Amino acid sequence: MNDSLLKPQLLRIIPCLLLHKGGLVKTTRFKSPVYVGDPINAVKIFSDKGADELLIIDIDATVDEREPHFESLRGICSQAFMPLCYGGGVKTIAQMEQLYALGFEKVSLSSAALERPELVREASKKFGAQSVVVTLDIKRSTFTKRFIVVSHRGKRKWTLDYIDAVQQFVKLGVGEIVINDVDRDGTMEGYDQALFRKAAQASPVPVVALGGAKDLADIEAVLTDGGASGAAAGSLFVFKGPHRAVLINYPERNF
Amino acid sequence: MIAIIDYGLGNVSSVANMLKKVTQDKVVISGDHEVIEKATKLVLPGVGHFDQGMNNLGDRKLVPLLTRLIQEEGKPILGICLGMQLMCLRSEEGSAPGLGWINAEFKRFPAGSERKIPHMGWNWVRFVKDSQLTRYALPNSRFYFVHSYYCARNAPEDTLATCAYGPDFTAAFEHKNIYGVQFHPEKSHQFGLAIMRGFASFGE
Known about the structure:
The complex is a heterodimer. Chain A is of the alpha/beta class. Chain A has helices spanning 39-48, 70-78, 93-102, 111-115, 118-127, 162-172, 193-202, 216-223, 235-238, and strands at residues 12-20, 23-28, 31-37, 54-58, 84-87, 106-109, 132-140, 147-151, 156-161, 176-181, 207-210, 230-233, 239-240, 245-246. In chain A, strand 2 and strand 3 (31-37) form a beta hairpin. In chain B, the strands form two sheets. Chain B has a nine-stranded mixed beta sheet. In chain B, strands 5-6-9 form a three-stranded mixed beta sheet, with no helix packed on it. Chains A and B meet through helix 2, helix 3 and helix 5 of A and helix 1, strand 7, strand 8 and helix 6 of B.
């Protein structure tokens, strides 16, 4: 394994797990979810492999207009001896409180933060900035070729430049921002390094890159040149080989 | 019996999960005064804002009880993250005074060109004195940190471990029966397990 990956001590490599109808899935460009396995088992495996942290996202909750499935999340939390961040359908302070009590270190707000940005300020005041994450789903506009913010599984478009969004949420007290590249989701074609670099430069809070990670060199690049504080990936850690056989994997970090 | 103090803030389940792996002793999560009184060891976890933490302790009338158990009766207590901060004099994060058991105060990390705030991620720690808490600590110990405020000033003899994020800061302290760790042992894999094992095995 590449030695230079072993040095950045605070730069995190973060498997991203998507929950859909009770199972773990992988999507491609936010579509066509494919069943990958049991979430509790996957979390246990990642924990046993010493994963730095996990990002767990329920991809149905907002679109289905329902709450997070607290009870099934309890099982997930019991298997993790590393930090967990949860996102999906979180809209209220009370829900966030429940999630922290279950064992999540961080809770991610996405559509709720766009619909009511004040929620970010309220959450940061109550739970501390370090517990509050905003995930921005980003697509490339076919007209203007710029990066725009979307929500609701990519169906709803916001007239909001993603850098403006980053700066807005920083002002509201967010602790971390995940930039999620919808167009590269599930493709493993490589991170769009420029997309993440711009966000990291604009943000005094940690920025996590997500979407399209191709291999460890790609991860290393986004963490060093890219300035990202974390590199998240889905497909890279659950698939292996050209036929995308399911195999949960995580790079060894021998310190 | 080890009691993890439930004051409405903090990942009590995670702390319990890890403690149960390292001790045969009973581990309970409770905000009940009687249970806390009966415990042989206490853990004060915490994820959140300093003032909210002090408010929650106040609402549950835990401050006089804990102060008596800790300062008069000398019950061992481990404060984790916010829990560690609350045991001190004050924090720049809020306006409420802390529990005041430890002569220390917390300041916000200064914004640096390369340094993102909060300090979020795995970082190495240097142990500067021997302690029961760290007797099983693994070599090259690293732990998960997630905080914007750090222990800026404390009695040097209380410093148990330091960590570097820009300048060095106190990552753990020990003062008689009181232990505080800025990092999250319950979220630090085998490195954290070793610290929990140290705490759980006091008196053995």
